[in-house]
Design brief:
The protein has helices spanning 3-11, 66-75, 94-97, 100-105, 116-126, 199-212, 234-256, 261-264, 285-296, and strands spanning 32-36, 39-42, 49-54, 57-61, 84-88, 109-113, 138-140, 143-148, 151-157, 167-171, 176-178, 184-185, 218-220, 223-224, 231-232. With 299 residues, the chain is α/β, with parallel strands linked by helices. Bound molecules: zinc ion.
Length: 299
């Protein structure tokens, strides 16, 4: 593995607690990428940030960690400025909310699904990191919409999936949606059972969102294997749905055949999904199978 490949490999660890170096001396590219319609993304450390700037408003999805959040709030001024500043949290995980305090101090109003603040508080208590949190001041149960510039921004909750507080945030006019961690693009996903995850709900969500999309819809993903990246199409949503369906089917077959939890969860890859990789033990097929086993046995 050469140095660049190794650094890319390190980048895959960002879904976990791992903290990545923020300056790769061999990579001089801007963390800001423009997509279309005033919308872009920002990748530095943690779950991909989505952003939209228009006259008088900045709308951001997710806050990574404090250092990248500082780099973001400074750098975004090249693309537009407030006074209306809104930060959505796609869900509560630390690599999506860890920079919230930086955004709040910069005048952003934080919005999230109503289950997010409590999940975030519990996670912060468990990691002894409560002092560095800022929580959504505005929450919603199922849906939250507002207009800014040419855009209608719509955040929608579809029920428990990756956690019990995931939103899909749509930019209706540009036909772009931010999926948070509902797609780990060709990575074994984190399925946060303690955070209320439900694999069956996640499968339904991906099907529903893919049906709402069309062939032009561009999706932003929280994490991805470098060759596949952190943007994609509805086909990528359906591929993840197929993986999760296979995960449940494989586990159920094992249970029906009387195999033990240890036997079922010893599998490290599926022949049907050869492109999926495991960047760490934290994101691995055995971990996914164990959550499937817990879900199917109601344990
Ligand atoms: Zn997550």
């Amino acid at each position: 593995m050469n140095r660049l490949d190794f650094l890319k490999h390190l980048g895959l660890l960002s879904a976990g607690a791992a903290i990545l170096p923020t300056n790769f001396s061999s990579i001089k590219q801007s963390p800001f990428t423009e997509l279309r319609g005033g919308i872009g993304m920002f990748s530095m450390q943690g779950g991909t940030i989505g952003w939209y700037t228009t006259d008088g408003a900045i709308v951001v999805i997710d806050s990574q960690f404090p250092d990248p959040a500082h780099a973001f709030v400074e750098g975004i001024s090249a693309f537009g400025t407030g006074p209306q500043k809104v930060l959505f949290n796609s869900h509560h995980h630390g690599d999506h909310t860890g920079g919230n305090l930086v955004f709040e101090n910069d005048g952003y109003t934080i919005i999230a699904q109503k289950n997010v603040p409590a999940l975030q508080r519990t996670a912060a208590q468990n990691s002894d990191n409560e002092a560095n949190q800022a929580y959504a001041a505005t929450t919603f149960e199922n849906e939250f919409s507002f207009d800014a510039g040419d855009e209608t921004i719509n955040a929608k909750y579809y029920g428990p999936a990756h956690t019990k507080g995931d939103s899909v945030i749509w930019f209706e006019n540009a036909n772009i949606a931010h999926m948070g961690d509902l797609v780990f693009n060709r990575l074994y996903p984190f399925i946060d059972r303690n955070g209320g995850a439900m694999i069956s709900g996640w499968i339904n969500l991906l099907e529903t969102v893919a049906a709402k999309a069309n062939s032009e819809t561009l999706f932003i993903f929280g994490h991805g294997k470098p060759e596949f990246g952190v943007t994609g199409s509805r086909e990528d949503l359906l591929h993840k749905r197929d993986f999760l369906s296979h995960l449940l089917e494989y586990t159920q077959k094992g249970i029906d055949a009387g195999r033990s939890r240890e036997e079922i969860t010893s599998r490290t890859s599926f022949d049907e999904f050869p492109e999926h990789i495991s960047p760490s033990n934290f994101l691995s097929l055995p971990r996914n199978l164990d959550v499937a086993w817990l879900e199917l046995t109601n344990s």
